[in-house]
Amino acid sequence: MVETREIDPVGDLLAYTSPDAPLAWLRRGNGIVGIGSLGGFEQGPDASSAVDAPSPAEAWRRMAADAEVDDPVGLPGTGLVSFGTLVFDERSTATSRLVIPQAVVGRHHGRSWITRIRSTGSDIVEPLIDPIPYGPYWSATLGPGALAPAGYQAAVRAAVDAILAGDLEKVVLARDLVGTIPAGADLRRLVRALAHDYPDTWTYAVDGLIGASPETLVTVSHGAVTARVLAGTIPRGTDAGDDAEASSSLAHSAKDMQEHRYAVQSVLDTLGPHVRGMRADAEPFTLELPNLWHLATDVAGEIADHASSLDLVAALHPTAAVAGTPTDAAIELIRTLEPFDRGRYAGPVGWVDGDGDGEWAIALRCAQIGSGPVRGYASFSDTVPVVAHAGAGIVAASDPETELLETRVKFRPIVDALA
Prior knowledge:
Number of strands: 23
Strand content: 25-35%
Largest sheet: 13 strands, mixed
Distance between the termini: 42 Å
Structural class: alpha+beta
Low-confidence stretches: 372-379
Number of helices: 8
Radius of gyration: 21 Å
């Protein structure tokens, strides 16, 4: 049974979710947070070889079909909701998860609500739905991971060689940072810092994956489909004049425009079978974030079949913006040049409701907290492992030093928040 009721406006959504396992999806003060867990769906590394294994979209359809929903509020994020985080590569040793909370507290343009989700016959105790005081501030220790700066530049050179040889047109290469945080740290502090410093991004926390993504993979709401494609990046300037010059330089960069065109065309080609009346900006615009400029293109249309947001996520991922072009060749090169498992980095993260509507971003500017899905890192009694990734799109004209600088800029949101 799922029951949603409107309540007095809630000021701080994050105060309601768990300090050590927050579930959150926030933007510009709106969003939803989850409390407790009724389970959901988990897909491990062997799922792709199982003939009868359902996809996340199919598994969610089965779960949602059995739900009795009483939702007079009818806003985005009310009714039955599941939070999700999916792996980047089907060969990953990490797990993809859909998490159904026991309760959801949400806010949308001044209106707030509580949803209670109960499983028939379950003996799970209903959680208290009260704000929880924040724990003390904390900081992480971080250092180079499996791909240090020198190794990353060597990987970029190898990628450029492959592109010049005609093996592919673009590949997105990432590098990693690893470290620890104190055991028992209130992870809502990390979510809160990201939401405060980057309010125009999707700030998320699902199964230990915490970040602030500027890139909407896909949003579906009552038949309307929207997506935002980001590819092409430059750091912000140090003053107003320098900043304007940086924005203009990005908008006129042949290398970045080429990278961006690959990413946009990838999305248009993939959405085509599912979406009618598709519209996209003729030229990208420069999207301003606190630490960098992105080239961005918005795409919109209407659902032409019965696809859910999770169906579109499966069709779109991985996009050229986080993998490359052509996709299969890019993925193979990533597997060759990156000496680590990306896990959920650059994979889809978001939420889906009982009708299949939802909001999904690409898991960027993030860190995975905890040893569960993170490449075998060990937990100790007084610390918890953390791993973060950042990448850059490599094309024929890429310069290794410039691409390394781009990853440093992209690491800044999560590194600053962890510090």
